Amino acid sequence: MTTIPFGKPMVGEEERRAVAEVLEGTTLTHGPRVKAFEQAFAEFTGAPHAIATATCMASLHLAYLACGIGPGDEVLVPAQTHVAMAHAVEICGATPVFVDADPRTGNVDLDLLAAAVTERTRAVSVVHYLGLPVDMGRVLEVARRHDLFVVEDCAIALGARIDGTHVGLHGDVGCFSFYPVKHITTGEGGMVITTRADIADRVSKQRAFGIDKSVLADRRHTAAYEIEYVGLNYRMGEIGAAMGVEQLKRLPGFLEQRARNFRSLAAGLGGVDGLTVIDSDGPGASHYCLVALLDAPLAERREELIETLKGEGVGTSVYYPKPLPDTKYYRETYGHPERSCPVAARISYESIAFPVGPHIEEEDVQRIVETVGQVVDRLVARA
Ligand SMILES: *Cc1c(COP(=O)(O)O)cnc(C)c1O
């Protein structure tokens, strides 16, 4: 029996040839591929500025640094997201303030977001959970009223748009991931996009040791430069960028396949008693995966369900395994009580994520639906 994996990088002949070309040359970093990838990404998203980075975590760190986030500041962070966002705030010396999710979509609850603003709040962050765009109009309203920066985590939302404008361009800065199971991959990799020239300038300098090469460009020593900021080395290399250029060409096809798979899987799993599919198929969505909430009595038996499905060749995942305030570090550092964000807790502890990526076809979708139906029947019968 073959296994349907949750995620699988779509690396083909084009990517292999592009990487081989890099290896045949002598330029492994500071080369033309990173620039080409940034330019192609800017074209695809419509961003005036796109800066390639090492990872999404690196992108988020650079984004908060560019917004000047530091000690004493509070930053609103969704409880239902990847820990990278909270860590990026924490590394800047600021405090992540967690906001619970909307039970219908899993995106941040916008009423709670507005209510969480204090005198110390400097920025609001959102994640376009499962590729469904957050209502950015309402986020921007809150941000304008309190003069806050807006950071968008688009790690699982590449291709998602609101009224035609790509996610990441509604707030001040948007961050992307090219980790192997995301919409496209460069092995490890990330991108920052922004409409703001000042943020783009600071991100691109702090990405590379804070160096400003333009300052001394008129001097005779071509290697001379000035250090304008404290910085990091968060650059992307030529090998990753070469993959990224090829992956981006295939992205429109990937997105179509994801939408088809999502709709077919949602229709199928919608007919299974005990499952409630989270509604992440709104306008402009980019279908990262499908998350199904388990109703009682299945909810308490999630691990058994996941293990049984795995045994039957259906790979699944959990997005995300713990609400951030429930994780050991944030619980102990800030004294959050267990399940302080009950909606995020329900999603984290009582849901299963199913694949919809371009590595699966309609026959795989049908196999997932049939297998889930049978396994759920068996578990419920034994309950
Ligand atoms: C995967 C993911 C990240 C982390 O991305 P890396 O490129 O691995 O650093 C950040 N945020 C979200 C929402 C993610 O899903």
From TrEMBL:
Claim: Protein biosynthesis is one of the keywords in the record: no
BP GO terms, sorted: polysaccharide biosynthetic process
Obligatory cofactor(s): pyridoxal 5'-phosphate
EC category name: transferase
Entry EC number(s): 2.6.1.102
InterPro entries: DegT/StrS_aminotransferase, PyrdxlP-dep_Trfase, PyrdxlP-dep_Trfase_major, PyrdxlP-dep_Trfase_small
Transmembrane segments: none
Annotated keywords: Aminotransferase, Pyridoxal phosphate, Transferase
SUPFAM superfamilies tied to this protein: PLP-dependent transferases
Protein family: Belongs to the DegT/DnrJ/EryC1 family.
Protein name: GDP-perosamine synthase
Organism expressing this protein natively: Capillimicrobium parvum
